[in-house]
Amino acid sequence: MSGDRLDALGRETGAFVRFVLLWFGLDSAVAPVRTVVRVATGSRPEFWLVPVVAAVVTTAVYWSVDRLSWRLVGRAWALSIVVSVLSVVGFALVSLDDGSGLVAAATVGSWWAFSVAVGLGLTSPAVWRAFRDRLLLRPRS
Fold first, then answer.
1. Residue 97 has what pLDDT?
2. 94: Cα within 13 Å, side-chain hemisphere
3. Half-sphere exposure of 8 (CA within 13 A, CB side)
4. Each residue of 68-104: pLDDT tens digit?
5. CA-CA distance, 34 to 12, in Å (whole number)?
6. Separation between Cα atoms, residue 29 and residue 84, nearest integer Å
7. Nearest to residue 106, comparing CAs of 35, 54, 51?
8. What DSSP assignment string belongs to 44-95?
9. CA-to-CA distance for 105 and 88, rounded, in angstroms?
10. pTM of the model
């Protein structure tokens, strides 16, 4: 094999590994969709629901960016950690026994959307830059 073919093979392998790690990273971020579907429909969703939703989200992210970077994969994993922690807190605070199925599903779905928004805010470089510029670095008088 020539050097060009090995370089291309290495790049493609790296892109595939980043895609798979992004998929597994986003799996935890979309895992609360099982609870939303369970509460909304009253039945247990299929086992493949979360991996399929994670694959759809990963494919959308893959096609929306020019190149998958390791930083993006790290941000996806950080987002998943934030969503997981906030989901556990939300499920501890919200009782799913009260109210109808649609109200409980709306409550759980809203908390999940809030968790994703907080996670995106915490992992966004633009938010961190604004936080650093406005709050951490004070101009000298």
1. 67
2. 21
3. 5
4. 888 989 999 999 999 999 988 887 887 766 556 777 7
5. 33
6. 7
7. 35
8. PPPTTHHHHHHHHHHHHHHHHSSS--HHHHHHHHHHHHHHHHHHHHHHHHS-
9. 16
10. 0.78
